[in-house]
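Please fill in the sequence for the structure shown.

STRUCTURE ENCODING:
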């Protein structure tokens, strides 16, 4: 073989090798693309201060109470009142309350929400990107949506961690997501989860939580289902929240075959206008004064434990009950990051992704 032929042969082998490498790379990229996700889940909880100090607590309360879905008074009246009087007066008391429940890893709401999000990611696998955001505070909705966009998500489930719908909570999340998507000029296919209280998985998870707690601690004289309250005028204007709360409790009570030994109540009212009734604190006081010695309280409207469950219920309401003559007060924890909770949320997401495939 001449030197020229040897050179041409070597060039041909090199060209063929390069062509094979290009084809292999193309194949790998194609396979990688088939495994890359175009599905995303945005979990959204209410939010929490980053630390239990007056400055961060004040900023968190300002953002939260500035939302017109939360307080629908005229802005010209409400915003100056909020910033000049309400926040300065409330932030010290709220900071003290947060300090009572703060754990080593931070705010319980954040700790449980992060663990729940991580569990959901494991359950759904690599083909779905799960992101956690807070409606108020960090991680904020915009940053998490930007991440999902940059990861190539085309089908997006927006899942507020509120089992029952209300304009004050769920709709506020949808407001923020819609405004952010418009600002980003991003238009994925959106699947909004407005509620999941009627999902059999949720009903049985709450029922199982109560049953397991009572197997360990015994049954109480009275079981209270304490739901977060909202102003009654919002329900009168069409908010389905109260109806969904009552349906939630009825469904759980049916599974557990509860009768007169359970009751729905509403907590966390502020201001002087009527809120949904009966009020939890008043019911607890009346029960103790009328001779009830042992009560248990669960708050199934909260997906994870937070200030309203760990401080308001487990500490303050217990003090009310004992001071009024009661003897034993027990709080039944939220679903938090339990396996049942993770499986429930995964089933909600998977059902919507199945719709996307049709």
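FILLED IN BY: designer on duty
SEQUENCE:
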């Amino acid at each position: 073989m001449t030197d020229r032929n040897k050179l041409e042969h070597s060039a041909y082998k090199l060209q063929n090798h390069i062509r094979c490498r290009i084809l292999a790379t193309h194949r790998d990229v194609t396979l990688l693309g088939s495994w890359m996700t175009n599905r995303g889940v945005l979990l959204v909880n209410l939010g929490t201060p980053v630390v239990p100090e007056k400055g961060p607590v004040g900023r968190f309360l300002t953002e939260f109470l500035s939302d017109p879905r939360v307080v629908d008074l005229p802005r010209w009246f409400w915003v100056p009142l909020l910033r000049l009087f309400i926040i300065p007066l409330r932030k010290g008391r709220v900071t003290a309350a947060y300090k009572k429940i703060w754990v080593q890893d931070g705010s319980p709401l954040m700790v449980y929400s992060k663990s729940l999000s991580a569990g959901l990611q494991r359950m759904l696998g690599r083909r779905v990107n799960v992101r956690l955001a807070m409606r108020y505070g960090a991680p904020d909705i915009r940053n998490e949506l930007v991440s999902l966009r940059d990861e190539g998500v085309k089908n997006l489930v927006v899942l507020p961690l509120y089992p029952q719908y209300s304009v004050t909570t769920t709709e506020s999340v949808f407001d923020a997501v819609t405004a952010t998507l418009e600002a980003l000029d991003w238009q994925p296919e959106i699947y909004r989860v407005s509620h999941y209280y009627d999902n059999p998985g949720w009903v049985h998870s709450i029922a199982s939580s109560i049953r397991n707690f009572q197997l360990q601690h015994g049954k109480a004289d009275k079981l209270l289902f304490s739901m977060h309250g909202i102003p009654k005028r919002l329900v009168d204007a069409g908010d389905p929240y109260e109806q969904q709360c009552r349906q939630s409790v009825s469904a759980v009570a049916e599974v557990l075959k509860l009768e007169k030994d359970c009751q729905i109540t509403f907590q966390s009212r502020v201001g002087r206008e009527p809120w949904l009734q009966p009020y939890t604190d008043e019911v607890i006081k009346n029960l103790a004064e009328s001779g009830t010695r042992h009560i248990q309280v669960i708050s199934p409207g909260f997906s994870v434990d937070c200030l309203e469950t760990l401080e308001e219920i487990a500490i303050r309401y217990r003090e009310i009950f004992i001071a009024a003559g009661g003897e034993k007060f027990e709080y039944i924890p939220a679903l938090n990051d339990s396996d049942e909770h993770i499986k429930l949320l995964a089933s909600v997401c998977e059902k919507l992704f199945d719709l996307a495939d049709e």
